[in-house]
Amino acid sequence: MKHRHILAPQIIAAAVVATVSINAAQPAGGWAQVAARFSNSVQQAGIIGASLLFVKDGAMAHEAMAGLQDQATGRLVDRDTIFHWASITKTFTGVAIMQLRDRGFFSLDDPVVKYVPELREVHNPFGDISQVTIRHLMSHSGGFRAGTWPWGGDQPWHPFEPTRWAQLVAMMPYTELQFRPGTKYSYSNPGVIFLGRIIELFSGDDYEVYIAKNILMPLGMSRTFFDRAPAYLVAHRSHSYRVTDEGVREQPFDFDTGITVSNGGLNAPLGDMAKYLAFLIDGNDTILKRSSLLEMATPQVRAADGEGGSGEDVQAGLSCFIERHGGVDLVGHSGDQNGFISHLYIHRPSRSGYVVSFNTDVTSARDSRRTTRAVDDEVRDAIVGAFWDKSGR
Question: Is the pTM of this model over 0.85?
């Protein structure tokens, strides 16, 4: 049985539907314009609730919140609101892999099958399965399919995702590599599950326990949890929605991600994500060497828009993406699952970055600009224009 490691609660004063400057030493600059654009875009797109946080020099500098955490109760999004971060979880998986690598357990260029022998059942038309390395999994260049559960899903009794390792193993004889490992990019959730398996093998802990002990606790992320919210945090858990041309539909989300937890099981409020963002920007040698963080942001293979990264100029690093927007290089990762859409970006030259989360996936066949993804892009462009430029400011 998987353990859902929950840390002690932390009481934080709420700032409701407001734009707030947290660090008085940090001038507001263009934040008023960024926040206004964020709020207006959220409202115009029909997004029910969203939060935005900007971190600089290791501290929360600015934040903005808009809309509702729960449409039924009318509860506003506030600083306590817990969002689901979906595939941003993959960056935690990457940090964990680098920690274990730095401790001498393996090399990133080791064959994955050396530690996940069940992969021998996968068909590789390009040669032996030992061609697939840990590095390939981290850069989505191993050749595996995108989805973890490609069959079924059309019946209410079908699982949302495989919850047990045995289910994934049963699919391996029916899995085929789509290209020669290391030669191209294709976003793959199964590949990240294999990374989670390696973390559990060398640590002796469930994935969630390892992450709690080696990342969450050292960073003081005391209100972060995986999967189902404990009773004392249920009221703060944001609901999620899908909005289409046909209307609004609430998404059932409080489910067990099971064996796929290393892909997207993370839930956290903005305050906790600020601590994680500061770590990614500046490093913390007690958690992971700065040189290893920089190594993660080294381009490995050209990637594609909308598959973890965004834009026309995007490359996959190790469990992150390197993108160029407005002539500025950013490191980031997106998340998208069951109505929640999120993004994390850092701009290391200015020691700053931001996270944004939306509890609504808006799509429209009538208006391509009226989507959550379009708002996500607008927020990024506004922050690049207001805070980052080609000079590396």
Answer: yes
